[in-house]
Every structure is written in structure tokens, then in C-alpha cells.
């Protein structure tokens, strides 16, 4: 579960460099086209720039699309109701959380929803390792957006509703997972190599233990992203550069697979011939 959380909530620590091959696809619709880049949400300044073909695709794009616009000043008050727990943590989990946070000198508010706490713990661990959201892939492209419009695949409010809709048991399992040791080394290398099979296996190998999380965080969201992308591909204003968590682009039920099942031409730009931007 923790590997899944790391990829969905913050994705893994990974050092993107010009010779790295993160998941990168071109989608051709009836009228429009899009580039899909599998992202990591935290990073370091020396992650960049990306490979030339990725940088060129962004420069040639007319629109930047992210999962959500996290910089929207109006969103903070809208999402606040989703941040708090609906019921107290079990005593055993509350004690474990207090000990975990105490050992690390962290202040952890048990009134927060367990999924929020799990994200805070993982973000803190990433920060201790020197990785920050300010240097994530989304921030890298947002800072260079210029006059391009910013579109949202989901939006913060939708994402909050998804996590808030998880049962107490699933959220508590997420929190338990966030306190477990995790070796992200193989996951990092799979991302850098562009090894989709290994990336999917490492990310989802334990998800069968939490079918509710799999359905809500992956299957349903992937279907929604597919539908949004198909709608966007009816737009003729120019190529769309889409940055989305890498976990959504690999595996049999990924956004990529779902788009192909709808008859769209989706090309892996490391293995096939993508248009030259």
C-alpha cells in the first residue's frame, strides 16, 4: 500500500535527467492532439531539464493541463471540510501515530482525516530526504507556462471528494502504510528507465489488499481522466501538454490503455514514432 501511496500522493523520488525516459505518450484525436507525461510531484532543482523531445513537446503546446491547480487561491476554503476525520482513530493506531511523530519531532493532529495524515507523513519523509513539491514536475512546467491556459484533469475539489469518500478502514490502512518502511530504490529505477511493467508491478503489487482504494484512487479516476481527455481532443486550438501522476499511465487499466480501447492512436514516444513537435 505504501508504494501505491507514494506514487499517487507524491509519486516517487526520481532524478529526471536528459537521458531518463519517464512515461511519455502522444495521443492523436479526431481533431486535437495531446502529450502525456508521467510525473513525479516532488523533486530537486537538478532534476531538470528533461529529455529534448519532452522539452520540445512542451514548447510546441498551446495548453498546459495538470491533475489539479493547487495554486488556486479560492480552493483552500472549499476543501477545508474534507480535511478532518469523521471519527476518532482507534486507540492502538492513535498511539502508534503519536510514537511515530514523536520520534521524528513532528506535530501530528489526530483530528485530521487519516488520508491527510498519511500524506503529511510521506511528504515529511520526502522533505527529510531533500525532495520538495516546489521542485516537482508540475511546478517545473507551471513556472514556465507563460500565456498558456491551465486546464485541470480533475481539480482539487474532486480529488478531495475521492479521498474523503474512502471508508474509515481504508483510510486507516493508508495511515498504517505511511508509517511502514519502504524501499523506493527499485521504483525509482523503473521510473527512470521507463520500465512500465516493473513500474506497474512495484506500484500495485499489494493493492489487492485494499480493493476499495484501488477502485476509487485508480480505476474510477482513470476513467474520468480518459473522458476528460477525449473531450479535450475535440478542441482544435493546438496541442495539449498533460502532466499526470505516472501511476495513471501504466498498467492494463491505465489512462493510456483506456484511450486505446476507445480507438484513439496513443504512441509511446520512447518506443514508437511520435510526431516531431
UniProtKB/TrEMBL annotation:
Superkingdom field: Bacteria
Q: What is this protein called?
A: TraB/GumN family protein
Reply yes or no: does the keyword tRNA processing apply: no
Renumbered to this chain, the signal peptide range is 1-16
- Please provide the record's keywords in A-Z order: Signal
CDD domains assigned to the protein according to its UniProt record, in alphabetical order: Tiki
